[in-house]
Amino acid sequence: MKTIVITGASSGIGQETALVLTKQGFNVLGVARSEANFNRAKERILSENPNAKITFFVADLMQQREVVRVAGEINQYLNEKCNGELCALINNAGCVRSWYMTTEEGYEQQFALNHLAGFLLTYKLLPALVKANGRVIMTGSQSHKGIKVRWDDVMLSRGYNPLTAYKQSKLCNMLFAKGLNDRYANKGIRAYVVDPGLVKTDIGNKDTGSLVSFIWSLRKKHGVSPAVPAKTYAYLCGQEVAPEGLYYYLCKEKKYSKQVTKENADRLFELSERLCDIRYGEVK
Amino acid sequence: MNVMITGAAGGLGRAFANECGSRGYNLFLTDINEDGLLRIKRGLERQFDITVATKACDLTNAESVDEMLDIIDKHGIRFDMLLNVAGLDFEGGFTERERENLVKIVMLNNAATLRITHAILERRRPGKPFTIVFVSSLASMFPMPLKATYAASKRFLLEFATSLRQELKDEDVKVLTLCPGGMVTTKETMNSIKAQGFWGDATTNPLEAVARNTIDRALAGYSIYVPGVLNRVLSVFGKIVPRSWIAAVIYWRWKEARNRALHLDEQRT
After folding, report:
1. Tell me, what's the ipTM?
2. Nearest CB to B43: which of A105, A159, A211?
3. Residue to substitute from B5, B12, B16, B18, interface A, most A β-carbons within 10 A
4. Residue ranges of the domains in chain A?
5. Which CATH number fits domain A3-282: 1.10.510.10, 3.40.50.720, 3.30.505.10, 3.50.50.100?
6. What residues of B are in contact with residue A66 (Cβ under 8 Å)?
7. From first to last of its 284 residues, what are the pLDDT tens digits of chain A?
8. Is A249 a catalytic site residue?
């Protein structure tokens, strides 16, 4: 049974991708922030695909203890039911914040959820991914271009701008994928970033201020349905031979920022390992 | 530089802790939330090359504070700065609130703040300058119907800090009172600011900037810091407009905001 984990699976791009993947016959493990949300999502997925194999886990991935806990539950599930194999992890959960807000560790929330949560979850699920020659896919954005990582103030506490924080977190997704490929491509793991394009979801309306919420409401009107990017995830999960590219839009490779270098990727790995207190090298 | 922060596991406390960490200050953090303390300690140590000590403590309980002081004394810790962040509020009109909750506001915001300030002043580094920050509020500038106890407790801090500053001037102790508008620290504060509409957004201060500027100004010897131009204008109004008028306007504003918040809650459920 080929199993895929997808975070942020109860709404938007995540929910649609979960649906498409169940239709392709994958066993989908979704992570959602609340039981109410996942019940709604599960109901919808089962109504469109009565044969869907979908299981949900609840976790607020912004908090590292929650990432660690849910990773434990997922690993247990994989060991019991899937021979310890995970064929893809889709780090899709993300957020937008209007203000500098911090997690329990005092980390800026967009950086913590959009980047660190996936970094830590991938680490925890890496043995299962290695076992299945798995793929890791991040939900990125075109907005990762035209920005550099603020290495001296990655939490942006010296002048917070919501868009800068978002763009930087999406550049981090690119660097993380690059770093994973540099380290684990020889072990059969491939990492990708999907550019979903402008999609009609509620990301900019959840827990944001009036201004950000208003701007996003205007912007999303021009967005496509989440079913459009879902195809790209399905493409990357479904290919027998792992595609060679890094950054995909509408099932095709796309050019990405010149900031995506080995040097920056290594630097982000070193920083993120410190912030999560893990060492990727230690994974067998 | 050794800094004690109370209420360190909350939003503003964490922002202060991060700011101090980025300056390389060593920290002694306390909060009633032990788990939260351990997590912020972990985050700080991973980010900055500093020493972070923590002790969970109920500042309203003298025994609990004595326990913490024992630990401080056992290790011979001496302080250069105290950030009094711990504080609380319960929304609602005076008669609508639980009696004990009302008392708790004063017990923590005032009585406990005096207790810890007195104790840490005794434990300042001898012969060195010392800095104290009291986290008051823009609310301290006005009579605030529907937030009467909270606003008065914050007024107490402002008055007290101004006098203490004078008393300790010759001992090289600097005292600053921070009087911020709303700050978005949690989902709840975000919603309460949204419910206030335009004025909520307009008086909201960015957390990270407030933390940074507060420490800059405290070290530079300022006595009061009201972040934001609009908030400074409002605080001047507070001094020149008759207080009964202000009370009437604020009552009207909060009643509206409260109705809107209730409405938002109903929509959500």
Report:
1. 0.89
2. A105
3. B18
4. 3-282
5. 3.40.50.720
6. none
7. 899 999 999 999 999 999 999 999 999 999 999 999 999 999 999 999 999 999 999 999 999 999 999 999 999 999 999 999 999 999 999 999 999 999 999 999 999 999 999 999 999 999 999 999 999 999 999 999 999 999 999 999 998 999 999 999 999 999 999 999 999 999 999 999 999 999 998 888 888 887 888 888 888 988 999 999 999 999 999 999 999 999 999 999 999 999 999 999 999 999 999 999 999 986 54
8. no
- Closest-CA distance, B37 to chain A, in angstroms, reads 9
Nearest to B184 among A101, A211, A274 (CB): A101
**Chain B interface with A: residues with Cβ < 8 Å:** 9, 11, 14-15, 17-19, 22, 36, 39-40, 42-44, 46-47, 184-187, 190, 193-194, 201, 204, 206-209, 211-212
* DSSP assignment string, A66-101: HHHHHHHHHHHHHHHHSTT--SEEEE------SS--
Nearest to B14 among A102, A207, A209 (CB): A102
How far is Cα A105 from Cα A116, in angstroms, rounded to an integer? 12
Single-letter residue type at B150: Y
Adjacent-strand bridge partners of B53: B28
Contact B185 A155 (CB under 8 A): no
Q: In a mutagenesis test of the B interface, which of A63, A104, A151, A271 is the best target, namely the one with the most B β-carbons within 10 Å?
A: A104
Of the residues A107, A123, A160, A247, only one is catalytic, namely A160
- Collect all residues with Cβ–Cβ distance below 8 Å to A90 and sequence separation of at least 6: A4, A5, A6, A7, A14, A17, A136, A137, A138, A139, A233, A237
Of B11, B42, B206, the CB nearest to A102: B11
Q: Is the pTM of this model over 0.90?
A: yes
Residue B200 CB neighbour total at 10 angstroms = 22
Rounded to 10 degrees, the C-alpha dihedral B247/B253/B258/B264 comes to: -170
Contacting residues of B for A207, CB less than 8 Å apart? 187, 190
Tokens of residue A76, six digits: 């247990």
Q: How far apart are CA B150 and CA B102, in angstroms?
A: 9
Non-local CB neighbours of B254 within 8 Å, separated by 6+ positions:
B144, B145, B146, B147
Question: Sheet of A190-194: strands edge to edge?
Answer: A53-58, A27-32, A3-7, A88-91, A135-139, A190-194, A247-249, A252-253
Domains in chain B: ranges and CATH: 2-268 (3.40.50.720)
CA distance B48 to chain A (A): 10
What secondary structure, in 3-state letters, does A125-188 show?
A: HHHHHHHCCCEEEEECCHHHCCCCCCCCCCCCCCCCCHHHHHHHHHHHHHHHHHHHHHHHHHHC
